[in-house]
Amino acid sequence: MKKVYEKPVITRLETGFMNKFGKSPFYSRKVRQDIDGVPIERLVEEFGSPLFVYSERQLREKYRQVYNAFASRYPNVQFGWSYKTNYLQAICSVLHQEGAIAEVVSAFEYEKARKLGIEGKNIIFNGPHKPIEILEVAASEGAMIHIDHFDEIIDLEQVADKLGKQIKVAIRLNMDTGIHPQWSRFGFNLENGQALDAVKRIASGGKLILNGLHCHIGTFILEPEAYAIEVEKMVKFAYQVEDNFGFKIEYIDIGGGFPSKNRLKGTYLPPDVVVPPVDEFAEKITQALYSNLRPGDFPKLVLETGRAIVDEAGYLITTVFASKRLPDGRKAYIADAGVNILFTAFWYKFNIEIDRPVQGANEPSVIYGPLCMNIDVIDEGSLLPPLERGTRLIFSPVGAYNNTQWMQFIEYRPNVVMVMEDGSVELIREKEDITDIERRERLPERLKVK
Ligand SMILES: *Cc1c(COP(=O)(O)O)cnc(C)c1O
Fold this sequence. Notes:
Bound molecules: pyridoxal-5'-phosphate
CATH class of the largest domain: Alpha Beta
CATH superfamily of the largest domain: Alanine racemase
Number of helices: 13
Shape: globular
Number of strands: 20
Number of domains: 2
CATH topology of the largest domain: TIM Barrel
Structural class: alpha/beta
């Protein structure tokens, strides 16, 4: 059969794959025109730029994926949502709806969880600074209090006297799991006998009942094996405590620290290569449980996973405000979002997507934020095509530790929205104005400008 004539077309060739020097200058950047089906442009028109956007669907899916990795392997699993990773009410509520209890590390976070309707018995209270007033509230409400130091034991015994009852407590351990630098400043050291001393001290006081062990070995841990070591040491210690002091260790809380698909600065390979899937962590952890637990013993396994659940559900839309050429020849862009709201830019190199296809060769470019501060850099060097003013850049993943560690500095903090599962968009934190910032200030009469 004779072929039909086809008009010749010229297609732009997108060559260049990732190699050991990174991406070729001709690699085309990923274009993102929507988040869960909602156009970027519509989001910005309605809520402004910069704008934090969370995906309810991705948050729930991730929670279920991580939870099921453990629940499918071990019969007694409880997740506690790490408030400091992201304590926006809407985020916490989604995770509480999914079944997580609250994990808090300060009086403020404790109050936040209570205000959201979480009962004391469903709050894990960690942290090195728990003033006696909040300890008393937490103890009377039956919270899971995790003791950090000997002074806290003394405080809690005082609270027990005041309440006229024994208080159930857990202790936090720190230990060598092969992760360095070792987080040895929290809790009681296992290897040097301090943890055992803490148990002796608690037992001799007779006012506290030890019913749990806690440990949190660090954050963005890329080694599943470290958790296997942690679990083995915790289970062995639990039996040592049970056999010698008569306490029953009802739960083992192994903390958080699993990595998200983010890229630590200086990491050579992409997250898809270096970040082990959560199933690998779950497999190592549950294997370590089964090889060290006594037959028929299934203490509750508590996890406080923060970053790995929320990071990838968060995006930041920013807009190119201006561009300039640096004296060293590099292209520079000024975006409307900086380290004031993207605090984790100090450690991570984000994935940057552009809201439209852009023609032109890529060149090394640096992206600055809006602050009048030299350190305000949100990307130190990426290959970018020439970007016009008004181009939207979508940074991800940014869901962990930005909406808690952001600061009001020079600029206002922007709107935060959630794209709901039904495709609607909800404002979950309204952008600030001057009244938010000045509400607590007092200007003495005699200093007023006349
Ligand atoms: C911060 C923190 C977590 C959460 O850590 P991620 O790295 O976000 O998973 C869990 N437990 C404790 C005690 C923490 O301080």
